[in-house]
Specification:
400 residues, alpha+beta, six-stranded mixed β-sheet, 16 helices, 15 strands, binds protoporphyrin IX containing FE
Length: 400
Protein backbone atom coordinates (compact mmCIF):
# COMPACT_ATOMS: atom_id res chain seq x y z
CA UNK A 1 0.00 0.00 0.00
CA UNK A 2 1.34 3.44 -0.85
CA UNK A 3 1.69 6.06 1.88
CA UNK A 4 0.71 8.85 -0.47
CA UNK A 5 -0.33 9.33 -4.08
CA UNK A 6 1.70 10.84 -6.91
CA UNK A 7 0.11 13.64 -8.89
CA UNK A 8 -0.10 14.17 -12.62
CA UNK A 9 2.75 16.70 -12.24
CA UNK A 10 5.14 13.97 -11.22
CA UNK A 11 6.33 11.08 -13.46
CA UNK A 12 5.91 7.61 -11.96
CA UNK A 13 8.62 4.91 -12.02
CA UNK A 14 9.10 1.57 -10.37
CA UNK A 15 12.63 0.49 -9.51
CA UNK A 16 14.31 -1.27 -6.59
CA UNK A 17 17.03 1.11 -5.33
CA UNK A 18 18.68 -1.66 -3.25
CA UNK A 19 19.20 -4.05 -6.17
CA UNK A 20 22.72 -5.35 -6.84
CA UNK A 21 23.87 -3.89 -10.18
CA UNK A 22 27.18 -3.32 -11.97
CA UNK A 23 28.94 -0.30 -10.40
CA UNK A 24 27.97 2.88 -12.26
CA UNK A 25 24.50 1.80 -13.43
CA UNK A 26 22.66 3.49 -10.58
CA UNK A 27 24.32 6.85 -11.21
CA UNK A 28 23.24 6.55 -14.85
CA UNK A 29 19.64 5.92 -13.73
CA UNK A 30 19.60 9.06 -11.57
CA UNK A 31 21.14 11.03 -14.48
CA UNK A 32 18.19 9.95 -16.65
CA UNK A 33 15.63 10.80 -13.97
CA UNK A 34 17.11 14.30 -13.54
CA UNK A 35 16.81 14.90 -17.26
CA UNK A 36 13.15 13.88 -17.08
CA UNK A 37 11.79 15.92 -14.12
CA UNK A 38 12.87 17.64 -10.87
CA UNK A 39 10.94 15.10 -8.81
CA UNK A 40 9.56 11.65 -9.58
CA UNK A 41 7.46 9.13 -7.66
CA UNK A 42 8.96 5.65 -7.23
CA UNK A 43 6.08 3.29 -6.54
CA UNK A 44 8.45 0.52 -5.39
CA UNK A 45 7.53 -0.94 -1.95
CA UNK A 46 5.60 1.68 0.05
CA UNK A 47 6.31 4.42 -2.51
CA UNK A 48 8.37 7.58 -2.14
CA UNK A 49 9.42 10.73 -3.98
CA UNK A 50 12.88 11.08 -5.54
CA UNK A 51 14.25 14.62 -5.94
CA UNK A 52 16.61 14.79 -8.90
CA UNK A 53 17.87 18.37 -9.35
CA UNK A 54 20.25 20.59 -7.40
CA UNK A 55 17.90 23.50 -6.71
CA UNK A 56 15.05 21.34 -5.44
CA UNK A 57 17.43 19.16 -3.42
CA UNK A 58 18.84 22.17 -1.57
CA UNK A 59 15.30 23.33 -0.85
CA UNK A 60 14.63 19.97 0.83
CA UNK A 61 17.91 19.68 2.76
CA UNK A 62 17.87 23.27 3.98
CA UNK A 63 14.28 23.24 5.25
CA UNK A 64 14.27 20.86 8.21
CA UNK A 65 10.96 22.19 9.56
CA UNK A 66 9.26 20.96 6.41
CA UNK A 67 11.46 17.90 5.72
CA UNK A 68 12.23 16.11 8.97
CA UNK A 69 15.01 13.66 9.86
CA UNK A 70 12.74 11.60 12.14
CA UNK A 71 12.70 9.02 9.34
CA UNK A 72 15.70 8.69 7.02
CA UNK A 73 15.05 5.34 5.32
CA UNK A 74 12.48 5.50 2.56
CA UNK A 75 11.16 2.01 3.37
CA UNK A 76 10.67 2.80 7.03
CA UNK A 77 8.57 5.97 7.49
CA UNK A 78 7.77 5.20 11.16
CA UNK A 79 10.99 3.95 12.71
CA UNK A 80 11.18 2.80 16.31
CA UNK A 81 14.95 3.55 16.41
CA UNK A 82 16.68 6.95 16.56
CA UNK A 83 20.21 7.15 15.19
CA UNK A 84 22.06 10.09 16.78
CA UNK A 85 22.63 12.77 15.50
CA UNK A 86 21.25 11.82 12.03
CA UNK A 87 17.65 11.26 13.13
CA UNK A 88 17.32 14.26 15.44
CA UNK A 89 15.61 17.50 14.49
CA UNK A 90 15.77 21.06 15.81
CA UNK A 91 17.35 22.01 19.10
CA UNK A 92 18.14 18.45 20.23
CA UNK A 93 20.16 17.98 17.05
CA UNK A 94 21.88 21.33 17.47
CA UNK A 95 22.94 20.49 21.01
CA UNK A 96 24.57 17.21 19.90
CA UNK A 97 26.29 18.90 16.94
CA UNK A 98 27.66 21.71 19.12
CA UNK A 99 29.25 19.22 21.50
CA UNK A 100 30.53 16.90 18.77
CA UNK A 101 31.88 19.71 16.57
CA UNK A 102 35.25 20.22 18.29
CA UNK A 103 36.11 16.50 18.00
CA UNK A 104 35.76 16.71 14.18
CA UNK A 105 37.22 20.17 13.58
CA UNK A 106 40.10 20.60 11.09
CA UNK A 107 42.43 21.07 14.09
CA UNK A 108 41.30 17.87 15.85
CA UNK A 109 41.56 15.91 12.61
CA UNK A 110 45.05 17.28 11.89
CA UNK A 111 46.19 15.67 15.14
CA UNK A 112 45.23 12.27 13.73
CA UNK A 113 47.51 12.74 10.70
CA UNK A 114 50.42 10.54 11.86
CA UNK A 115 48.30 7.60 12.91
CA UNK A 116 46.21 7.71 9.75
CA UNK A 117 49.31 7.92 7.58
CA UNK A 118 50.99 5.02 9.40
CA UNK A 119 47.92 2.89 8.81
CA UNK A 120 47.84 3.71 5.09
CA UNK A 121 51.55 2.91 4.72
CA UNK A 122 51.19 -0.36 6.67
CA UNK A 123 48.36 -1.54 4.43
CA UNK A 124 50.00 -0.62 1.11
CA UNK A 125 53.33 -2.14 2.18
CA UNK A 126 51.52 -5.29 3.31
CA UNK A 127 49.96 -5.58 -0.13
CA UNK A 128 53.33 -5.06 -1.86
CA UNK A 129 55.04 -7.57 0.42
CA UNK A 130 52.85 -10.34 -1.02
CA UNK A 131 54.77 -9.80 -4.28
CA UNK A 132 51.83 -10.90 -6.46
CA UNK A 133 51.44 -7.62 -8.39
CA UNK A 134 47.73 -7.67 -7.60
CA UNK A 135 45.23 -7.03 -4.84
CA UNK A 136 41.58 -7.33 -3.96
CA UNK A 137 41.32 -3.57 -3.44
CA UNK A 138 38.08 -3.44 -1.42
CA UNK A 139 39.00 -6.22 1.03
CA UNK A 140 42.73 -5.61 1.34
CA UNK A 141 42.60 -1.83 1.52
CA UNK A 142 39.32 0.09 1.18
CA UNK A 143 37.40 -1.63 4.01
CA UNK A 144 40.31 -2.10 6.40
CA UNK A 145 41.67 1.45 6.27
CA UNK A 146 38.68 3.55 7.50
CA UNK A 147 37.56 0.77 9.83
CA UNK A 148 40.86 0.76 11.70
CA UNK A 149 40.83 4.58 11.91
CA UNK A 150 37.31 4.38 13.33
CA UNK A 151 38.43 1.83 15.96
CA UNK A 152 41.18 4.21 16.99
CA UNK A 153 38.81 7.21 17.17
CA UNK A 154 36.44 5.23 19.40
CA UNK A 155 39.31 3.83 21.52
CA UNK A 156 38.65 0.22 20.48
CA UNK A 157 41.28 -2.51 19.97
CA UNK A 158 42.56 -3.16 16.44
CA UNK A 159 42.06 -6.89 17.13
CA UNK A 160 38.33 -6.24 16.68
CA UNK A 161 38.86 -5.22 13.04
CA UNK A 162 37.73 -8.57 11.49
CA UNK A 163 34.59 -8.54 13.62
CA UNK A 164 33.76 -4.95 12.56
CA UNK A 165 34.33 -5.77 8.91
CA UNK A 166 31.94 -8.70 9.18
CA UNK A 167 29.23 -6.52 10.79
CA UNK A 168 29.79 -3.85 8.17
CA UNK A 169 29.23 -6.43 5.45
CA UNK A 170 26.09 -7.85 7.09
CA UNK A 171 24.50 -4.44 7.78
CA UNK A 172 25.36 -2.62 4.60
CA UNK A 173 26.10 -5.09 1.84
CA UNK A 174 23.84 -8.08 2.10
CA UNK A 175 22.01 -7.49 -1.15
CA UNK A 176 18.27 -7.12 -1.43
CA UNK A 177 15.28 -6.07 0.60
CA UNK A 178 14.02 -9.61 1.22
CA UNK A 179 13.27 -11.25 4.54
CA UNK A 180 16.57 -13.09 4.81
CA UNK A 181 18.59 -9.90 4.15
CA UNK A 182 16.68 -7.88 6.76
CA UNK A 183 16.96 -10.75 9.27
CA UNK A 184 20.75 -10.77 8.82
CA UNK A 185 20.94 -6.96 9.03
CA UNK A 186 18.86 -7.03 12.23
CA UNK A 187 21.10 -9.65 13.86
CA UNK A 188 24.27 -7.73 13.00
CA UNK A 189 22.83 -4.41 14.22
CA UNK A 190 21.82 -6.01 17.51
CA UNK A 191 25.37 -7.38 17.85
CA UNK A 192 26.86 -3.92 17.24
CA UNK A 193 24.58 -2.42 19.89
CA UNK A 194 25.44 -5.19 22.35
CA UNK A 195 29.15 -4.69 21.71
CA UNK A 196 28.89 -0.93 22.29
CA UNK A 197 26.75 -1.41 25.43
CA UNK A 198 29.69 -3.21 27.02
CA UNK A 199 32.13 -0.51 25.90
CA UNK A 200 29.85 2.30 27.19
CA UNK A 201 29.59 0.62 30.58
CA UNK A 202 33.37 0.22 30.76
CA UNK A 203 33.98 3.85 29.76
CA UNK A 204 31.56 5.18 32.35
CA UNK A 205 33.71 3.47 34.97
CA UNK A 206 37.05 4.28 33.44
CA UNK A 207 37.01 7.09 30.81
CA UNK A 208 39.76 7.50 28.22
CA UNK A 209 40.68 10.06 25.56
CA UNK A 210 38.36 8.56 22.94
CA UNK A 211 35.14 9.83 21.37
CA UNK A 212 32.90 7.49 23.40
CA UNK A 213 34.33 8.81 26.68
CA UNK A 214 33.91 12.39 25.41
CA UNK A 215 30.27 11.81 24.41
CA UNK A 216 29.53 10.41 27.87
CA UNK A 217 30.16 13.90 29.24
CA UNK A 218 27.59 15.50 26.88
CA UNK A 219 24.33 16.92 28.16
CA UNK A 220 21.10 17.60 26.31
CA UNK A 221 18.75 20.11 27.96
CA UNK A 222 20.94 19.90 31.04
CA UNK A 223 20.51 16.10 31.35
CA UNK A 224 23.46 13.70 30.82
CA UNK A 225 23.02 11.43 27.78
CA UNK A 226 21.50 8.03 28.56
CA UNK A 227 23.01 4.64 27.72
CA UNK A 228 20.37 4.21 25.01
CA UNK A 229 21.32 7.52 23.38
CA UNK A 230 24.97 6.50 23.54
CA UNK A 231 24.18 3.21 21.78
CA UNK A 232 22.27 5.07 19.08
CA UNK A 233 25.18 7.45 18.67
CA UNK A 234 27.74 4.65 18.35
CA UNK A 235 25.61 2.78 15.83
CA UNK A 236 25.22 5.89 13.66
CA UNK A 237 28.96 6.60 13.81
CA UNK A 238 29.58 3.02 12.69
CA UNK A 239 27.24 3.42 9.72
CA UNK A 240 28.34 6.94 8.74
CA UNK A 241 32.09 6.74 9.08
CA UNK A 242 33.19 3.41 7.63
CA UNK A 243 31.46 2.50 4.47
CA UNK A 244 31.30 6.03 3.06
CA UNK A 245 35.08 6.26 2.90
CA UNK A 246 35.42 2.67 1.58
CA UNK A 247 32.92 3.27 -1.21
CA UNK A 248 34.52 6.60 -2.19
CA UNK A 249 37.94 4.92 -2.26
CA UNK A 250 36.51 2.16 -4.48
CA UNK A 251 35.05 4.63 -6.97
CA UNK A 252 38.18 6.84 -6.94
CA UNK A 253 40.50 3.90 -7.63
CA UNK A 254 38.21 2.50 -10.31
CA UNK A 255 38.41 5.90 -11.98
CA UNK A 256 42.19 6.21 -11.63
CA UNK A 257 42.79 2.62 -12.81
CA UNK A 258 40.83 3.28 -15.98
CA UNK A 259 41.98 6.90 -16.63
CA UNK A 260 45.79 6.70 -16.83
CA UNK A 261 46.02 10.38 -17.83
CA UNK A 262 44.44 11.48 -14.50
CA UNK A 263 46.54 8.99 -12.56
CA UNK A 264 49.77 10.21 -14.17
CA UNK A 265 48.87 13.80 -13.29
CA UNK A 266 48.48 13.06 -9.58
CA UNK A 267 51.60 10.85 -9.51
CA UNK A 268 53.67 13.60 -11.11
CA UNK A 269 52.10 16.35 -9.02
CA UNK A 270 50.62 15.05 -5.73
CA UNK A 271 49.52 18.60 -4.84
CA UNK A 272 46.60 17.91 -7.23
CA UNK A 273 45.28 15.15 -4.94
CA UNK A 274 42.94 17.31 -2.76
CA UNK A 275 41.23 18.77 -5.85
CA UNK A 276 40.99 15.31 -7.42
CA UNK A 277 39.33 13.97 -4.26
CA UNK A 278 36.80 16.83 -4.25
CA UNK A 279 35.97 15.96 -7.84
CA UNK A 280 35.51 12.25 -7.08
CA UNK A 281 33.23 13.12 -4.15
CA UNK A 282 31.25 15.40 -6.49
CA UNK A 283 31.01 13.25 -9.61
CA UNK A 284 30.49 9.98 -7.70
CA UNK A 285 28.51 11.29 -4.70
CA UNK A 286 27.52 8.08 -2.94
CA UNK A 287 25.01 9.04 -0.25
CA UNK A 288 21.25 9.00 -0.78
CA UNK A 289 19.74 10.68 2.28
CA UNK A 290 16.00 10.73 2.86
CA UNK A 291 13.55 12.94 4.71
CA UNK A 292 9.94 12.75 5.83
CA UNK A 293 7.57 15.57 4.91
CA UNK A 294 6.37 17.06 8.21
CA UNK A 295 3.58 19.10 6.59
CA UNK A 296 1.74 19.26 3.26
CA UNK A 297 4.18 20.93 0.88
CA UNK A 298 5.49 20.85 -2.70
CA UNK A 299 8.76 20.11 -4.45
CA UNK A 300 9.43 21.53 -7.91
CA UNK A 301 5.72 22.21 -8.39
CA UNK A 302 4.73 18.68 -7.32
CA UNK A 303 2.40 18.53 -4.26
CA UNK A 304 3.79 16.35 -1.45
CA UNK A 305 1.56 15.24 1.44
CA UNK A 306 2.67 15.27 5.07
CA UNK A 307 4.06 11.84 5.98
CA UNK A 308 5.52 11.13 2.53
CA UNK A 309 9.10 9.91 2.30
CA UNK A 310 11.48 11.82 0.03
CA UNK A 311 14.83 10.47 -1.25
CA UNK A 312 17.58 12.93 -2.15
CA UNK A 313 20.21 11.08 -4.22
CA UNK A 314 23.04 13.60 -3.94
CA UNK A 315 24.73 12.37 -7.13
CA UNK A 316 21.77 13.61 -9.16
CA UNK A 317 22.40 17.15 -7.84
CA UNK A 318 26.19 17.06 -8.06
CA UNK A 319 25.96 15.96 -11.72
CA UNK A 320 23.42 18.65 -12.64
CA UNK A 321 24.58 20.75 -15.62
CA UNK A 322 22.58 23.68 -14.27
CA UNK A 323 25.26 24.04 -11.58
CA UNK A 324 28.42 22.35 -12.90
CA UNK A 325 29.72 22.77 -16.41
CA UNK A 326 29.88 19.44 -18.23
CA UNK A 327 28.81 17.90 -14.93
CA UNK A 328 29.10 14.23 -15.92
CA UNK A 329 32.77 14.63 -16.84
CA UNK A 330 35.42 14.12 -14.16
CA UNK A 331 37.84 17.06 -14.29
CA UNK A 332 40.30 16.52 -11.47
CA UNK A 333 41.35 20.18 -11.29
CA UNK A 334 37.78 21.54 -11.42
CA UNK A 335 37.47 24.95 -9.69
CA UNK A 336 35.29 26.12 -8.15
CA UNK A 337 33.85 22.83 -6.96
CA UNK A 338 31.20 23.74 -4.45
CA UNK A 339 29.43 20.38 -4.43
CA UNK A 340 26.97 18.85 -1.96
CA UNK A 341 28.56 15.37 -1.85
CA UNK A 342 28.74 15.80 1.94
CA UNK A 343 25.12 16.96 2.07
CA UNK A 344 23.72 20.40 2.93
CA UNK A 345 21.77 22.03 5.72
CA UNK A 346 21.95 21.14 9.43
CA UNK A 347 22.91 17.48 8.86
CA UNK A 348 25.83 18.19 6.53
CA UNK A 349 28.51 15.55 7.17
CA UNK A 350 30.13 15.89 10.57
CA UNK A 351 33.12 13.83 9.43
CA UNK A 352 33.96 15.68 6.19
CA UNK A 353 37.38 16.92 7.37
CA UNK A 354 38.32 13.45 8.56
CA UNK A 355 37.04 11.86 5.34
CA UNK A 356 39.02 14.28 3.18
CA UNK A 357 42.19 13.65 5.16
CA UNK A 358 41.77 9.87 5.04
CA UNK A 359 41.24 9.99 1.28
CA UNK A 360 44.15 12.37 0.68
CA UNK A 361 46.59 10.26 2.68
CA UNK A 362 45.41 7.04 1.01
CA UNK A 363 45.96 8.46 -2.48
CA UNK A 364 49.35 9.92 -1.53
CA UNK A 365 50.77 6.79 0.08
CA UNK A 366 49.36 4.41 -2.52
CA UNK A 367 50.69 6.33 -5.52
CA UNK A 368 54.14 6.80 -3.98
CA UNK A 369 54.45 3.01 -3.94
CA UNK A 370 52.18 1.79 -6.75
CA UNK A 371 52.02 4.56 -9.37
CA UNK A 372 50.96 2.42 -12.32
CA UNK A 373 48.12 -0.10 -12.11
CA UNK A 374 45.07 -1.27 -14.00
CA UNK A 375 41.73 -2.90 -13.34
CA UNK A 376 41.74 -6.66 -13.95
CA UNK A 377 39.47 -7.11 -17.01
CA UNK A 378 37.82 -10.02 -15.18
CA UNK A 379 36.75 -7.73 -12.30
CA UNK A 380 33.01 -7.12 -12.16
CA UNK A 381 32.42 -4.57 -9.38
CA UNK A 382 28.83 -4.26 -8.25
CA UNK A 383 26.96 -1.97 -5.88
CA UNK A 384 24.03 -2.85 -3.67
CA UNK A 385 22.18 -1.40 -0.71
CA UNK A 386 21.06 2.10 0.15
CA UNK A 387 24.28 3.81 -0.83
CA UNK A 388 26.20 3.92 -4.12
CA UNK A 389 29.72 2.60 -4.55
CA UNK A 390 31.29 -0.80 -5.23
CA UNK A 391 31.61 -3.21 -2.37
CA UNK A 392 33.52 -6.06 -3.97
CA UNK A 393 35.49 -7.36 -6.89
CA UNK A 394 37.92 -4.58 -7.74
CA UNK A 395 41.11 -6.46 -8.59
CA UNK A 396 43.99 -4.12 -9.31
CA UNK A 397 47.04 -5.38 -11.24
CA UNK A 398 50.52 -3.89 -11.65
CA UNK A 399 53.95 -5.00 -12.87
CA UNK A 400 56.33 -5.89 -10.06
C1 LIG B 1 33.72 10.24 1.73
C2 LIG B 1 33.23 9.99 2.92
C3 LIG B 1 31.93 10.54 3.44
C4 LIG B 1 30.85 11.01 2.75
C5 LIG B 1 30.66 11.13 1.25
C6 LIG B 1 29.85 11.40 3.74
C7 LIG B 1 28.62 11.96 3.44
C8 LIG B 1 27.68 12.34 4.38
C9 LIG B 1 26.41 12.93 4.06
C10 LIG B 1 25.90 13.22 2.66
C11 LIG B 1 25.77 13.19 5.23
C12 LIG B 1 24.40 13.86 5.40
C13 LIG B 1 23.30 12.86 5.52
C14 LIG B 1 21.93 13.53 5.55
O1 LIG B 1 21.78 14.67 5.10
O2 LIG B 1 20.99 12.88 5.99
C15 LIG B 1 26.63 12.74 6.29
C16 LIG B 1 26.32 12.84 7.64
C17 LIG B 1 27.16 12.40 8.64
N1 LIG B 1 28.44 11.93 8.50
FE1 LIG B 1 29.45 11.68 6.77
N2 LIG B 1 30.35 11.16 4.99
C18 LIG B 1 31.62 10.64 4.87
C19 LIG B 1 32.47 10.29 5.89
C20 LIG B 1 32.21 10.42 7.22
C21 LIG B 1 33.11 10.09 8.30
C22 LIG B 1 34.55 9.58 8.10
C23 LIG B 1 32.46 10.31 9.47
C24 LIG B 1 32.92 10.13 10.90
C25 LIG B 1 33.82 9.30 11.32
C26 LIG B 1 31.13 10.80 9.14
C27 LIG B 1 30.17 11.13 10.06
C28 LIG B 1 28.92 11.63 9.74
C29 LIG B 1 27.90 11.91 10.74
C30 LIG B 1 28.03 11.72 12.25
C31 LIG B 1 26.79 12.39 10.04
C32 LIG B 1 25.45 12.83 10.64
C33 LIG B 1 25.47 14.32 10.83
C34 LIG B 1 24.17 14.87 11.41
O3 LIG B 1 23.15 14.19 11.38
O4 LIG B 1 24.19 16.01 11.89
N3 LIG B 1 31.02 10.86 7.77
N4 LIG B 1 27.80 12.24 5.75
Amino acid sequence: MTTTEPTSKCPVHNFNPLEELPAGEKIATYDRLRDEAPVIWNEFATGYYVVTRHEEMLAVLQNPDTFSNRAVTVFDPNPTYKWIPEMLDGDEHLQWRRQLGPRFSPKAVAQMEDKVRRRAVELVEGILAKGTGSCDFMNEFAFQYPTSIFLDLMGLPIDDLPQFMEWEHEILHVAGSGEEASRRRGIAMASVIEYFSGVIEARRESPGEDLISAALTFEVDGTPVSDEDMQNFCLLMFMAGLDTVSATLGLSFMHLASHPEDRTRIVEDPSLIPAAIEEFIRAYAIVIPARKAAVDTEIGGCPVKAGSMVAVPLNAATRDDAVFEDAKTVEITRTPNNHIGFGAGPHRCLGSHLARRELKIALEEWHKRIPVYRLDPDSAPTESGGQLGPNKDITLLWDN
